[in-house]
Amino acid sequence: MVRRVSSLGFRRVAGVCGMVVLVTGTVGWLAGDLAQPAAFSPANDDISDLGAVTANSAWLYNQIGANLTGLLVVVLAVGLWLALSPDLPGRLGSVALAVAGAGSFLDGLLRLDCRGIDAACTNDSWHSHAHKVESGITAVALIIAPLILAFAFRRDPGWRAAWLPSLLAVPAILLANVVFSTIGDGAATRAGTVVAFLWIAFVGAWLLRVSSRAGAPTATAAAAP
């Protein structure tokens, strides 16, 4: 009984962490954008430039938008693992989300050498190459996670109503990228990222809701002396 209560408590915390991702992730790159010089264009320059060695106030993106956000996503993934186990798709989807969170955390450590606006910018260091590899893996994991979890949610009565929004999250991310690409590559990346954060916050809110209901006393228990 104590172990079950502890698990429910962690799942509630994990749900809140998922909801906070929308704040930390968005604030990280918005504040980072504002800290850059006038030559920097959020519409055209990549989000990763905000954490480059030459970036102004790089900690805004690296520590808030990447490190903290990544940790919050990993905690959410662990909460989902507990909530959806022993369902295999649930576990696989949770792992995919954890990979995305770990990648986000590493994004703030494996920094680019310079921004696109910097003269003679080459980004040829080992950590710049590692950053590019990590970014690709993170992007793939963030696309796969909603798809796998959608089918896991469909199999669980408590999560069934969340399966379609999760399935639609992937085309929504891709559509946001396509629509905002008319403004610039930077705008496309930022728009897709915001949609991904919205889905993560949605899953976090649902986990909090399901866990709170599971922890609520039944009528029989409430009536017991």
The main pleated sheet reads as: none
- Tell me the structural class: mainly alpha
Tally of helical segments: 7
Uncertain segments = 218-225
Strand runs, count: 0
- Helical content class: over 70%
What spatial form do the alpha-carbon principal axes imply? elongated
Percent strand equals under 5%
What Rg do the Cα atoms give? Answer: 19 Å
Output mean pLDDT. 92
* Distance between the amino and carboxyl termini: 18 Å
Oligomer: single chain
Order of helices and strands: HHHHHHH
Task: Report on the architecture of this protein.
By secondary structure, the chain is an all-alpha fold. Helices cover 72% and strands 0% of the residues. It has 7 helices and no strands. The longest helix has 34 residues, at 2-35. The radius of gyration is 19 Å and the shape is elongated.
Keywords summarizing the entry:
225 residues; mainly alpha; 7 helices; disordered C terminus
